[in-house]
Design brief:
Immunoglobulin-like; 4-stranded antiparallel beta sheet; 13 helices; alpha+beta; elongated
Length: 385
């Protein structure tokens, strides 16, 4: 039961014993609630992506407060260069090694690419047109500058140089990335927590302010936001399809907004989920149960209202009973079939106005029949004199 019903809950107790918070407990509670409101806000800012591309599988660099989309194929070469430079800069030096020692002489195949020593006695310019020779030269340059990363850093394009410090690497030296689906789940959880914290703060301050807060509700206040996180994620799974990222794109603002509202109005969200679940898993009608329900259909003739009718005014007829909606019923009043009757399991009701030509009658007939035409009720209602 939610705290908003807290006062009514105590009304059934003979003497409710309030247990208000002390001033220090109120201050501590307020500080904690401020922290728990700021925490999801920080997460939302930290993991909000810079952009979402429609029609592609979005992958981002996992850098909080700088969630950037991994470059497309047109920029992949620049990204690979930047990643290679960062890897090279983080390569550990061997213990006991001489940092000033020149690299060892490369194999004979490496030496052959130098000018004057190319295969066949050609000049060094022919190596520039040989892809294999170019690759060997590049590997030799990387080895020779392994202890001097400044040369490699200066060779990076200016557009990448400012971002090289922002690329995180995992323990294997590969770029640390995160998918869009994972980002959305993080944002949905944070938004659900934030929305419920707004409700919790409102409820807490209201009960503390009027002096009716009871410490027995502390556990409810602690667990409520976490249950809202789970509910927000369930609502996201029910209302969204992860495959829409590739076809329709993602309305991230809408998704996060719904998650926050789910946390703020958890009771309404639970009702909505209940409605959806009932539609999905609605059981087939049990014919055996239907027959049994027809057999126990009961109409309470003694409590039909009104007991008497004022023919000069429109009135409402209510007929109580049990299992009244188990079968189709035909209601006839004053010789006219009633088509606008509202029938529930416990009550039949309809509105009626006596025609002028019938206002001289002293009683009106009420009949109720089943679909087969069997008469279940045949009674008369008198006129108010």
């Amino acid at each position: 039961m939610a705290p908003q019903n807290q006062a009514s809950e105590f009304l059934v107790v003979e003497k409710p014993v309030p247990s208000p918070l002390s001033n220090s407990e109120i201050i501590l509670s307020g500080f904690l609630m401020i922290c728990f409101i700021l925490a999801p806000l920080v997460i939302l800012f930290a993991y909000w992506p810079d952009k979402i591309e429609k029609g592609s599988y979005n992958v981002y660099y996992n850098e909080p407060f700088s969630i950037r989309l991994v470059d497309s194929d047109s920029n992949s070469k620049k990204s690979d260069t930047l990643i290679a430079a960062v890897k090279l800069k983080k390569t550990p030096e061997k213990k006991g090694g001489d940092t000033n020692k020149q690299p060892t002489t490369p194999p004979a195949t490496t030496g052959e690419v130098k000018q004057g020593n190319t295969p066949g006695g050609g000049s060094g310019n022919s190596a520039q047109n040989d892809p294999v020779a170019n690759l060997v030269v590049q590997e030799q340059m990387v080895d020779s500058h392994r202890t001097d990363t400044s040369k490699i850093n200066t060779s990076l394009p200016d557009s990448n140089a400012k971002n090289k410090k922002n690329i995180a690497l995992d323990k294997n030296g590969n770029p640390d990335t995160i998918s869009l689906n994972s980002l959305i789940l993080i944002l949905v959880a944070a938004a659900g927590f934030l929305g419920n914290m707004i409700y919790v703060v409102k409820s807490f301050t209201a009960f503390v302010g009027i002096g009716t807060f009871n410490k027995q509700w502390i556990l409810w206040y602690v667990l409520k936001p976490f249950s809202a996180v789970g509910l927000a994620i369930v609502i996201y799974f029910v209302l969204n399809n992860s495959d829409d990222v590739l076809t329709k794109g993602v309305n991230l603002n809408g998704i996060v907004g719904v998650a926050a509202l789910t946390g703020l109005f958890t009771d309404m969200a639970m009702v909505k989920l209940k409605d959806i679940f009932e539609v999905i898993v609605k059981p087939n009608e049990d014919k055996t149960l239907t027959k049994h329900s027809k057999a126990v259909l009961k109409i309470d003739l003694e409590n039909i209202k009104p007991a008497t009718i004022d023919v000069a005014q429109p009135f409402e007829v209510s007929i109580p009973g049990e299992n009244l909606n188990a079968a189709k019923l035909v209601i006839v009043f004053n010789g006219v079939e009633i088509t606008n009757a509202i029938i529930t399991s416990k009550l039949i009701k309809f509105n009626y106005e006596v025609p002028v030509v019938d206002r001289g009658k002293t009683e009106f007939a009420l009949q109720i029949k089943n679909e087969a035409g069997d008469e279940l009720v045949d009674t008369n209602i008198g006129v108010l004199l």
